[in-house]
Amino acid sequence: MQTLVVVGHDKIDRSSSHQFFISAGQEMEQVDYLLLDRWLKKSEPLWKQREHLLTYDRIIFQFQLHWYQAPYVMKEWIDYIFQLDDDFSNFKKALRQKELGLVVIAGSPKNQYQPGGSQGRSIYDLLAPYELLARHFEMVYLPAFVVHEFHLLGQQKQQQLLWRYNSYVTTGNQGRFSKYQRFIIHQLDSLAPEQFDASPEDLVLLDMLIETMTDRADDLEQLKGLVEEW
């Protein structure tokens, strides 16, 4: 599946979090980015911008929370692309069963957005309009990928976050262990020898690791099937 990530920020080059995610996602062949700080709504006709959007199977809105909502540039793009016009019904039909996901970056701690927290609402309460948007267009809504306090993450935590982000934008999955495991196996299996300095012995060990992980993933899926039947 091909993914388009629409990044809603008016100065993306000044955002360390967006730069971090974009640099990672651009390494994925099936992921493209639309950077809204470079977008002019009249640069191309609406029908052409919609036509480009419809070439993707998965659409992800990526933005930082700004006063509990998406930045203005994201709202402006959504209002323009999804506006009512003479071709709206055809556009709506073409969006049916495509996936809509969210990557949301929040500067506040996670515990502020939960029952008893200082914000009084969960992140998912704030993002409900996007779920309704997906429902209106009969799209498949993906649970939001939410990042809290990116600026406080150490290098190891950032690398773990990177794997989860790549899994989300390429598969739509962020939580199910079996799908995440398959994603990692696919990434390892797609590595070309020239991409890293490895001896023939190391390559053999890598093949053994991939084979072992694949066998365990198969066993896990079989076990899950037995549990569901039980």
Helices and strands in order:
Blueprint lengths: L2 E6 L7 H10 L5 E5 L10 H8 L4 E7 L7 H10 L6 H8 L3 E8 L16 H4 L1 H9 L3 E2 L3 E4 L6 H17 L5 H13 L10 H30 L1
Parallel strand pairs: 1-2, 1-3, 3-4, 4-5, 4-6
Helix pairs in contact: 1-7, 7-8, 8-9
Written description of the protein model:
The model has no long low-confidence stretch (mean pLDDT 85). The chain folds into 2 domains: 3-174, Flavodoxin domain (Rossmann fold); 176-229. The longest helix has 30 residues, at 200-229. Helix content is 47%, strand content 14%. The protein contains 9 helices and 6 strands. The chain has helices at residues 16-25, 46-53, 72-81, 88-95, 123-126, 128-136, 155-171, 177-189, 200-229; strands at 3-8, 31-35, 58-64, 99-106, 140-141, 145-148. With 230 residues, it is α/β, with parallel strands linked by helices. Strands 1, 2, 3, 4, 5 and 6 form a 6-stranded parallel β-sheet that branches. GO terms for molecular function: electron transfer activity; FMN binding; NAD(P)H dehydrogenase (quinone) activity. InterPro entries: Flavodoxin_fold, Flavoprotein-like_sf, KefG/KefF.
Supply database-style keywords.
230 residues; alpha/beta; 2 domains
CATH fold title of the largest domain: Rossmann fold
- CATH superfamily placement of the largest domain: Flavodoxin domain
Oligomeric state of the chains? single chain
**SS field, number of helical segments:** 9
Q: What is the C-alpha radius of gyration, as a whole number of Å?
A: 20 Å
Major sheet summary line: 6 strands, parallel
Helix percent band: 40-55%
Order of helices and strands: EHEHEHHEHHEEHHH
Spans of at least 5 consecutive residues with low confidence? none
- Structure class: alpha/beta
- CATH class placement of the largest domain: Alpha Beta
Calculate the mean pLDDT score and round it: 85
Q: What would CATH call the architecture of the largest domain?
A: 3-Layer(aba) Sandwich
Rounded to the nearest angstrom, the distance between the terminal CA atoms is 33 Å
The proportion of residues in beta strands is 5-15%
Taken from the alpha-carbon principal axes, the silhouette is globular
Tell me the number of structural domains: 2
